[in-house]
Design brief:
Number of domains: 2
Structural class: alpha/beta
Oligomer: single chain
Distance between the termini: 9 Å
Number of strands: 14
Shape: globular
CATH architecture of the largest domain: 3-Layer(aba) Sandwich
Strand order of the largest sheet: 1-3-2-4-12
């Protein structure tokens, strides 16, 4: 039986989840203040600046806190009020929404490739990745496992995920940036433990995805499936999602850090074409620059992301495993090479799915 057939139940559930997410996303444009996306033009005409941040699923809480701090900072610095509209969904889906007309002034997405797609559509100026420090990644993350209290399936590392009877919850690499990081981390583990034999690595991830029982369109949807709906034995998750789930549901979940993971670098950029049209270039730049401030870096750490400021990161050593072995996207030749090999139509993920 092909994995595609094994995924039938999963895909039905994912379709329902996707429909819900589309409905939620359509109404999830929230602002720090009283504006909505539809009020952006009128807000500008009244002298109050409004910018829109199109982001990926798990950053909702982070940007709610950050936007409060930024609004205060901006008012003190510029003597002008500003509001920030938030939009969240799967990173790949969010990139497509901007390409198709979503009026984003900035994008804060799960991986550089999604921002590159917006650049290729002519909306972001070339060289965006060098506009801000750290390849325009003001925070990083990694991929971990979230299991139920007591870890009943004794899941400690990637090889435990391919055992019979283990049910995995994991988002879809076709729509979720986090899912791409998940896939690459698993692939690297398989390479490291099979003398870099790619055939064996493919066999390993094929077995892993055969155990995926629900494949949601985004990382937050996958967390909801595991945590709130009670499905699955393990969630392959952004570190911040796992940390926040353990905090929010004390005594119910445990975080497991695998022996090998990946340095996930969510990226940020000004959507130049929209910002120029909206007259928000300077405000958009200040919005992203302030992510590197000490205040923002502390907010980032408090919300489960790893601050790019190494000194501030060290103050969160009780939150993050700073000794885990992390590969990077450069180990895969960069995102263009990774997409060509793994995620584009007909590439390895499709071979696994259709095999």
């Amino acid at each position: 039986m092909s994995i595609k057939n094994l995924f039938k139940t999963k895909k039905l559930k994912s379709t329902v989840a996707l429909a819900l997410i589309i409905g939620i996303t359509a109404g999830s444009m929230t602002a720090c203040g009283n504006s909505s996306a539809d009020e952006k033009t009128s807000a500008n005409s009244s002298g109050k600046i409004t910018i829109t941040n199109v982001s990926y699923d798990p950053t909702r809480e982070l940007y709610q806190k950050y936007n409060e701090a930024f609004v205060k900072y901006y008012k003190e610095k510029n003597n002008q009020e500003i509001e920030v509209v938030q939009s969240h969904g799967g990173s790949g889906s969010q990139a497509r929404s901007v390409i198709e007309g979503s009026d984003a002034d900035v994008v804060t997405l799960a991986l550089a490739h999604d921002i590159t797609l917006v650049e290729q559509a002519g909306l972001i100026d070339e060289g965006w990745i060098n506009e801000f420090d750290g390849d325009s990644s003001p925070y990083t993350s990694t991929i971990v496992f979230l299991v139920r209290k007591g870890n009943p399936k004794n899941i400690k590392d990637w090889d435990d995920l391919i055992k019979d009877g283990v049910e995995i919850i994991n988002p879809d690499p076709k729509s979720s940036g986090g899912a791409c990081w998940n896939f690459l981390a698993a692939w690297q583990y398989a390479l490291n433990n099979n003398n870099n034999d790619e055939a064996k690595a493919k066999e390993f991830v094929t077995k892993l995805y055969a155990n995926v029982t629900v494949m949601d369109s985004g990382a937050r949807g996958a967390t909801t499936t595991f945590v709130e709906n009670g499905q699955g034995d393990v969630l392959i998750a952004w570190e911040n999602e796992a940390i926040n789930s353990v905090k929010e549901y004390p005594g119910e979940y445990e975080l497991v850090t695998p022996s090998i993971s990946i340095l996930a670098q969510p990226s940020v950029a000004i959507v130049d074409a929209n910002a120029k049209k909206n007259g928000t270039q300077d405000a958009a730049k200040q919005y992203l620059e302030y992510l590197y401030s000490d205040e923002a870096q502390k907010i980032i750490g408090e919300n489960g992301y790893r601050p790019s400021n190494q000194e501030i990161l060290k103050t969160f050593s009780d939150t993050f495993d700073l000794n885990v072995e992390l590969v990077t996207i450069n180990d895969f030749g960069g995102w263009d090479a990774a997409y060509d090999k793994f995620f584009n139509d007909g590439a390895i993920f499709d071979e696994i799915y259709n095999g």
